[in-house]
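Justification of resources, computational component.

The compute hours requested in this renewal are based largely on the per-chain cost of generating structure records like the one below. Each record pairs the submitted sequence with a full structure-token output. That output is archived, and it is also reused by downstream analysis tasks.
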Amino acid sequence: MSDDDRRVGTNGLRQAFDEMRFGARRTLNLRERLPSAADAAARAETWLRQQQVNRAEEVLIITGRGNRSFEGFSPVRDAVRRLLHVLKRRGVVAGHDEHTPGSFVVYLAPVTALWESPRRNRDRGAVSPERTPPSLNELKPETRLLLRRLAERALESLGLKQTEGFVEAEMLRQFGAIAAGIGDGPRRESRLRAALRAALEEED
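The structure output for this chain reads:
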């Protein structure tokens, strides 16, 4: 058996184990469409935030190793690596490992880490403002109910009396932290509700 045959066999075996471990739903293959580094980072961030809400504990991101790029350097791989460090500071990622020279295993933080993470935007050296609606009444009733449940649990854990003023203030705080964590984009309130449900289940 030649060295090439051995490499093909080893790669096929690793791919089979990866499919068993992660499956299609927890694998992001950025190598397939050859995106730019910026597009790859944007796509990876959106995907990782959704995986966090889905409470996936670990996922696989395939970047490729850059064999076809200039001097064998992969801008996509470098962009994803930098993104993972940023998302760790923001409470989305708990950590990551190099799985192969062309892929990362990413360990996702619990949803509650979104508002437990530091509020400082280290990229700009300034505090990031929380995103809050002018009024909670602008949210759908289901969203407000989930926020209220989460706020009441937070106040209960702190031993604080649950007056209406305290509950509403805590609802606004929770909204600001989670909304900043899930980011903008389509179906934002739907994604917010999914994050709130996940946070409540984590608290059970």
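The two ends are 55 Å apart (CA to CA). The longest helix spans residues 3-21.
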